[in-house]
Design goal:
Blueprint: H1 2-5, E1 17-19, H2 25-34, H3 40-45, H4 49-78, H5 88-123, H6 131-149, H7 151-154, H8 178-206, H9 219-250, H10 265-298, H11 305-319, H12 334-346, H13 348-364, H14 371-394, H15 396-402, H16 406-436, H17 442-468, H18 485-515, E2 545-547, E3 565-570, E4 577-581, E5 588-593, H19 600-616, H20 620-638, E6 647-649, E7 685-687, H21 696-725, H22 738-763, H23 767-794, H24 803-834, H25 844-873
Antiparallel strand pairs: 1-3, 2-3, 4-5, 6-7
Helix pairs in contact: 4-5, 4-6, 4-18, 5-6, 5-8, 5-10, 5-16, 6-8, 6-19, 8-9, 8-19, 8-21, 9-10, 9-11, 9-21, 10-11, 10-13, 10-14, 10-16, 11-13, 13-14, 14-16, 14-17, 16-17, 17-18, 19-20, 21-24, 21-25, 22-23, 22-25, 23-24, 24-25
Length: 878
C-alpha cells in the first residue's frame, strides 16, 4: 500500500456513464475494491459506513439494556414505601449511571447508527465524507462508555446525578474519583459526538448523488443535519463545564467556589446551554425516521414536506434560546423569566407542524398496519403527551410548583425515551431487510409492540400523578401515607413490562437475522434510493451512482417528464472512488479518492482514551506520553498522498452507447445526454480530489472552527458572567498592562500574513518561497508563545490565587495550547511543501492548515479585548 500511495495517477481518464447488471464484472470489481480485509485487521480497520452504523446500533442497544437493568433495580426499591433494597449511596450511583447511559450512551448513538448506515444510501453515495473519522468516532464512543462503566469495578461510580450540579459535586462534598470519572468520560464522549457531527455536516454538503438537491433530501437527513450542527455548537459548552469542574477539583481553581468568587449557577448555564438543545438532538432525527418511513405504509408521500423540513430547522434554532427553561427556580430576573417562558411555549409551534403532517399523511393515505407503522403511530401518541407536559412546565408559576418533582421525570421519559424508542424500534423493523436481507417476524413484532406500548405508558404516565402529588425526584425511598404508593407500584410494574418488551424485540431481531424470511430488494415498497439496491446492501452501495430527479425515486410514474436514473449512472471504479457535488444543487464537482481501511483510527482512539485515563491517574508523565502518541497518530493519519490533483472527465454517454435497458422504464425514448429522461449528465472535466473550498477537508476544518469558536465563546461567557457577579476589584492586582500584549498581538497577526504568502507562493508554483514564508510564520508563532510564557512567569499570582487568576490562566492556556497545535501543523506543512507534496493543483492541506492558523490568530483578538481592554471600561467597584 505504501508503494501504491506514492505512484502518480494517470493524467487523464474517462470514467463511463453506463450500467452494471447484477453479477457483472463491474460489480465484482467494486466488491473487491470496497470489501474489508478478512480477520482481525479488517474488523478493527474497517471504514465501511454500514458496518460502523450497525456497530453504533448494537452498542447503543447494549447500553440500553444496561441502563434498563439499573432502572429496574431502582424501581424495585421504589415499589413500596420504606424499602431497603438499596442504600442511599447505591441508589445515587444507579440513578446517575442510568441517566448517563440512557441519555448519552443510548439515545444519540443509536440514531447516529441509523444515520451512518442510511445516509449514503439515501443520498446516493458510496460512503461518508470522512470514513476514518467515522471509525474513530465510533471507537471513541465505545471507549468512553467503557471508561464510564469502569467506575463499577473501580468502586468509584458517579453519584451526583446526570445533571452533576455543583456544589454537590465539588471536592468538598465528593472527594473520591467518581466525579472525575464522569467529567473525563463525558469530555471523551464529546470528542466522539463532535467528530460524528462534523462528518454528517460535510457528508451532506459534499457526498450526494447528482441531482440530490437540498429540496429533495429525506427528512431524516434534515433532522440529523440540524442535530449535528447543534452538537458542533453545544457540545463545547458541556465539555467546558466538565473541564472547569475537573480543574476546580484537581488544580485548585475557583470557577464554582463561592468562597473565592466562583458561582455554582455558572454550571447550570453551561450545562443547560448544551442539554436543552440536546433534547432536540435526540428528537429530530427520530422524527426524521418517522417522516421518511411512515409514508411507505400510507402509500403516499409525506404531506407538507417543505413545512416539515423548515419546522425541523426552526425547532433547533428556537431550542438554543430556551436553556433557562430549566432554571426558572434559580432566582432569574422576572423579565428574563417572561422571555424564556414565551420561547419555551413558542417551540411547540414548529413541533406541532410535524405532528399535523403525520396525521394528515395517515388520514389522506391508505394505511397498511404492519409492525413499523404501529411503532410510528405509537410515537405520535408519545410525542403529543410529552409535548403537552412540556408546554405545561413552560408556564413559570406552574413550573415553580413542579420543578424537581416526578412530573418532570415523567415528561423527561416521554420526551427522551418514548419519542426515541418507538421510532428506533419501528426503524429497525423497517430497515431490518436492508441490514440483514431478512424480515423480522410480523406476528411476534406486533406482540412486542403492544407489550412495549402498554408497559411504557403504565410505567411512566403514573409518574405525572406522583409529581402532582408532590413526590420529589432523586429520593431513594419515601414514607407511607403520602399518596404515592399506588402510582409507584404501577410505575414499577409498567417498567418491568416495558423491559420485557425490549428484550422481546432484541430476541426477535437476533432470531430473524438468522432465520427470518428472505426479504428481497424492496419488501415494503419504499420510495427512497436505499431501496434501489440489493438487500442486504452491497459493500460498495451503488454499482453506478444514480442521477436523481425527485424526492421519491422509486415512486416516479411513467408520466413524469424527468425521472431518476438508477441503472445507468456514473461508473467510478479506479480504486475506491466517490462523487463530490456542490452544496445546494448537487452538481458534480470532483471525483474523490476514498481512504482504504486502516487501524490508525482504532489506535488513535485508544491513545485518546489513554490521555484521559492518565488524567484520572494524575500522572503528568503519562499524559504527555499519550498526547505525544496522539500527535504522531494524527500526523500519520493526515500524511498526504501523491495520487491526487489530476483531472478527469465524466462524459454523457451518447445514444449509440447506451444500454438496451436503462432506468426504470426502458421503453421510454432516450436522449443523447441523459439516459431514460434522467437529469443531464456531467460533461465538464472534474478534478480527481479537489482544492480550496471544494475540498471536503476545507469544510471539515470549518466545522472544527465552529466547535472551537464555540469553546472560546463559552470561555469568554464565563469570564464576563463571573466578572458581572463580583463586587471585588477586577482584576484584583490592578489594571492590566496592555503594551507587551499589544506587541505580541502584532507578532501573531504577522504570522498569518506569512501563511497567506505561503499559500499564494504554492499556488504560483514557487516552492522555495512558500517554505521560507512558512518558516517565518513558524518563528513568529514561537515568539508569541515565548512572550506569553514570559508574561505568565511575570504575573504576581497563579491560577489558584483567586477567581481572576483561574480565568486568566485558563483562557490564555487554552489559546496557547491551540497555538502549540498550530505550530506543529505549520512545521508539518513546511516539511511537506519542501518535499514537493503541494503544487498549484494540489494544496488542500496547506489551505486548511492555514485556515486553522488564521482562526487561532483571530481568536486572540477577542481574548486580548476581553482580558486586556475590557477591564478599563468594565471596572468593578473596589
Amino acid at each position: 500500500m505504501a508503494a501504491a500511495r506514492d505512484m502518480p495517477a494517470p493524467l487523464s481518464r474517462v470514467p463511463d456513464l453506463g450500467e452494471a447488471p447484477p453479477g457483472s464484472a463491474h460489480e465484482r470489481e467494486l466488491a473487491a475494491l470496497w470489501e474489508s480485509e478478512p480477520g482481525w485487521r479488517g474488523w478493527l480497520g474497517t471504514v465501511d459506513h454500514k458496518r460502523i452504523g450497525l456497530r453504533y446500533i448494537v452498542t447503543a442497544f447494549a447500553f440500553l439494556l444496561l441502563g434498563g437493568v439499573e432502572a429496574l433495580v431502582m424501581r424495585i426499591q421504589l415499589a413500596r414505601p420504606n424499602a431497603t433494597v438499596l442504600t442511599p449511596a447505591q441508589y445515587d450511583s444507579l440513578f446517575t449511571m442510568h441517566g448517563v447511559t440512557m441519555i448519552f450512551l443510548y439515545a444519540l448513538p443509536v440514531l447516529s447508527g441509523f444515520a451512518n448506515y442510511l445516509w449514503p444510501l439515501m443520498l446516493g453515495s458510496r460512503d461518508m465524507a470522512f470514513p476514518r473519522l467515522n471509525a474513530f468516532s465510533y471507537w471513541v464512543f465505545l471507549f468512553a462508555g467503557l471508561f464510564l462503566y469502569a467506575s463499577f469495578p473501580l468502586g468509584a461510580v458517579p453519584d451526583g446525578g446526570w445533571f452533576n450540579y455543583v456544589p454537590l459535586t465539588s471536592l468538598d462534598y465528593s472527594a473520591g474519583a467518581n466525579i472525575d470519572i464522569y467529567a473525563l468520560g463525558m469530555i471523551l464522549l464529546g470528542i466522539s459526538t463532535t467528530g460524528g457531527a462534523a462528518n454528517f455536516v460535510v457528508t451532506l454538503l459534499r457526498m450526494r448523488a447528482h441531482g440530490m438537491s437540498i429540496d429533495r433530501l429525506p427528512i431524516i437527513v434534515w433532522g440529523t443535519l440540524t442535530a449535528s450542527v447543534a452538537n458542533l455548537v453545544a457540545v463545547p459548552s458541556v465539555s467546558l463545564a466538565f473541564l472547569l469542574l475537573w480543574l476546580d477539583r484537581n488544580a485548585g481553581t475557583h470557577f464554582f467556589d463561592v468562597a473565592n468568587g466562583g458561582r455554582p449557577l455558572l454550571w447550570q448555564h453551561l450545562f443547560w446551554m448544551f442539554a436543552h438543545p440536546w433534547v432536540y438532538v435526540v428528537v429530530l432525527p427520530a422524527m426524521g425516521i418517522v417522516s421518511d418511513a411512515l409514508p411507505t405504509f400510507c402509500r403516499r408521500p409525506l404531506v407538507a414536506y417543505e413545512a416539515v423540513a423548515v419546522s425541523t430547522v426552526a425547532t433547533m434554532l428556537i431550542g438554543f434560546e430556551v436553556w433557562v427553561h430549566h432554571m426558572f427556580a434559580t432566582g432569574i430576573a422576572p423579565l428574563a423569566l417572561a422571555f424564556f417562558g414565551a420561547a419555551s411555549m413558542l417551540i411547540s409551534i414548529p413541533s406541532a407542524v410535524a405532528v399535523f403532517a403525520w396525521i394528515a399523511t395517515i388520514w389522506t393515505g391508505r394505511p397498511v398496519f404492519r409492525t413499523p407503522f404501529l411503532y410510528f403511530a405509537g410515537f405520535v401518541l408519545m410525542f403529543v403527551i410529552g409535548g403537552v407536559s412540556g408546554v405545561m412546565t413552560a408556564a413559570v408559576p406552574l413550573d415553580w410548583q413542579l420543578t424537581d418533582t416526578y412530573f418532570v421525570v415523567a415528561h423527561l421519559h416521554y420526551v427522551l425515551l418514548g419519542i426515541n424508542v418507538f421510532p428506533v424500534l419501528g426503524g429497525v423493523t423497517y430497515w431490518f431487510p436492508k441490514f440483514t436481507g431478512r424480515m423480522m417476524s410480523e406476528r411476534f413484532g406486533r406482540l412486542t409492540f403492544w407489550t412495549v406500548l402498554v408497559g411504557f405508558n403504565l410505567g411512566f404516565f403514573p409518574m405525572h400523578v406522583s409529581g402532582l402529588l408532590g413526590m420529589p425526584r432523586r429520593i431513594y425511598t419515601y414514607p407511607s401515607g403520602m399518596g404515592w404508593d399506588t402510582s409507584n407500584l404501577l410505575t414499577t410494574i409498567g417498567s418491568f413490562v416495558f423491559g420485557i418488551g425490549i428484550v422481546m424485540f432484541v430476541v426477535n431481531a437476533l432470531v430473524s437475522a438468522r432465520r427470518g424470511a428472505r426479504a428481497g430488494g424492496n419488501p415494503w415498497g419504499g420510495a427512497g434510493l436505499e431501496w434501489s439496491v440489493a438487500s442486504p446492501t452491497p459493500v460498495y452501495n451503488f454499482a453506478v451512482l444514480p442521477l436523481v430527479a425527485s424526492r421519491h425515486p422509486l415512486w416516479e410514474t411513467r408520466e413524469d417528464p424527468v425521472r431518476t436514473s438508477m441503472r445507468v449512472g456514473y461508473r467510478l471504479a479506479d480504486g475506491r472512488e466517490a462523487l463530490a457535488v456542490t452544496p445546494l444543487a448537487a452538481a458534480p464537482s470532483a471525483i474523490l479518492k476514498m481512504p482504504e481501511d486502516s487501524c490508525v483510527p482504532f489506535v488513535l482512539a485508544l491513545l485518546a482514551t489513554a490521555v484521559f485515563a492518565a488524567m484520572l491517574a494524575r500522572s503528568p508523565t503519562l499524559v504527555c506520553a499519550a498526547v505525544a502518541g496522539c500527535a504522531i497518530g494524527t500526523a500519520v493519519w493526515l500524511w498526504p498522498r501523491r495520487t491526487l490533483g489530476q483531472r478527469a472527465r465524466l462524459p454523457a454517454r451518447d445514444a449509440t452507447q447506451a444500454p438496451a435497458a436503462a432506468g426504470p422504464h426502458p421503453d421510454e425514448p432516450r436522449s443523447p445526454s441523459a439516459p431514460s429522461g434522467a437529469p443531464a449528465a456531467c460533461v465538464e472535466p472534474l478534478p480527481v480530489g479537489s482544492c480550496g473550498k471544494r475540498a471536503g477537508g476545507w469544510w471539515g476544518v470549518v466545522t472544527l472552527i465552529v466547535t472551537e469558536a464555540g469553546l472560546f465563546g463559552y470561555l469568554l461567557f464565563c469570564y464576563f458572567y463571573l466578572q458581572s457577579q463580583t463586587t471585588a476589584p477586577w482584576p484584583p492586582e490592578g489594571m492590566p498592562k496592555i503594551g507587551l500584549a499589544a506587541g505580541n498581538t502584532v507578532v501573531l497577526l504577522s504570522s498569518s500574513v506569512f501563511v497567506w504568502l505561503a499559500e499564494r507562493a504554492v499556488e504560483a508554483g514557487r516552492r522555495r518561497q512558500a517554505v521560507a514564508a512558512l518558516a517565518v510564520a513558524l518563528l513568529l508563532g514561537v515568539a508569541f508563545a515565548l512572550v506569553q510564557l514570559h508574561e505568565w512567569h511575570d504575573r504576581p499570582y497563579g491560577p489558584t490565587a483567586h477567581l481572576y487568576g483561574s480565568l486568566y490562566f485558563t483562557i490564555t492556556g487554552f489559546h496557547l495550547a491551540h497555538v502549540a497545535a498550530g505550530l506543529v501543523i505549520l512545521a508539518l506543512l513546511a516539511g511537506w511543501t519542501a518535499a514537493g507534496f503541494f503544487g498549484p493543483e494540489r494544496r488542500v492541506a496547506l489551505t486548511v492548515g492555514g485556515l486553522y492558523w488564521h482562526f487561532v490568530d483571530v481568536v486572540w483578538l477577542f481574548i486580548f479585548t476581553a482580558l486586556y481592554v475590557s477591564p478599563y471600561w468594565l471596572r468593578s467597584p473596589g
